[in-house]
Design goal:
- This protein is of the alpha/beta class.
- The protein is built from seven helices and eight strands, in the order E-E-E-H-E-H-E-H-H-E-H-E-H-E-H.
């Protein structure tokens, strides 16, 4: 880990959005747990909705990881929401977690307005985002679901056939083999011409999720005629978009500003903060 990564993680600077107000709202009761949305509303009528899904290997981390990002998006005119979802377990796999995230997006559309939506996911959350933008995969859960306009995927898992296969378990009713199931629920293998536009970011120093997986995902999408772009971030390790983690917050904020410029260009954010 470079010297930049070792700098203090408690710096107080312009990227601290901890004071932005938000509300909590339960959207689902399942397995004895209340799943919540953390909603950051802009000062004026939202111009879009940005839904954030945290990572953590499907068994760790928490929605608060994206609170600063949500504050940033809300200050630039978007309704921003960070989503809670279950962890994988003995009887729970990524399909159950994906159903939680899908229910969250539906709840937002039904209760906050059906705004033009972008779904942002990081690492294991990137898997959820990629699936929500995938017509073939999401159609198995809800054939009538209208896909979001944009998927923003930060070093997301898109292939369950390798080391991430632990996220999927064979359940009663599954007729396919384990190998067939992994392919059926891998976004990289299930792209179609009806999928959402994808903006993918991946560091070339990532040793957790392979850059080649994101490259294959974007390549497969473009071959189907879907608008998709991969931004390779030189020298960046895994989860480089997270505050209070590997990199100084000021550096993370610079990368968030780069995303903000891209989202502004696509009409999801205003050019300046409110």
């Amino acid at each position: 880990m470079g010297s930049e990564n070792m700098k203090e993680k408690t710096e107080k600077d312009k990227c601290d959005f901890g004071d932005y107000p938000y509300s909590e709202r339960a959207f689902k009761q399942t397995d004895g747990k209340s799943l919540k949305l953390y909603v950051f509303e802009p000062a004026a009528e939202p111009i879009s909705c940005i839904v954030c899904i945290h990572g953590g290997g499907w068994h760790a981390d928490y929605p608060m990881r994206f609170f600063r990002h949500c504050g940033y998006f809300a200050r630039r005119g978007a309704l921003a929401v960070s989503v809670d979802y279950r962890s994988i377990g003995e009887h729970t796999d990524v399909r159950d977690l994906l159903s939680d995230c899908l229910d969250a997006v539906r709840f937002i559309q039904e209760n906050y307005g059906n705004y033009r939506t972008a779904v942002l996911g990081e690492s294991a959350g990137g898997y959820m985002a990629a699936c929500i933008g995938n017509q073939t995969i999401i159609g198995r859960l809800d054939p009538l679901f209208r896909l979001p306009a944009l998927i923003v995927d930060y070093n997301g898992i898109v292939d369950l056939k390798g080391k991430w296969s632990y996220g999927l378990i064979r359940k009663a009713g599954d007729k396919e083999s384990a190998e067939e199931l992994r392919k059926l629920w891998s976004p990289v293998d299930q792209v179609s011409c009806r999928d959402s536009e994808v903006l993918c970011f991946h560091g070339d120093a990532d040793t957790i999720v392979e850059l080649s997986d994101s490259a294959a995902f974007v390549r497969n999408l473009t071959q189907k005629g879907v608008k998709a772009r991969l931004e390779v971030v030189p020298g960046a390790e895994h989860s480089f978009i997270l505050f209070d983690y590997l990199y100084p917050n000021s550096r993370v904020f610079e990368r968030l500003e780069q995303l903000g410029a891209a989202l502004c260009g696509k009409g999801f954010l205003k050019s300046t903060a409110q």
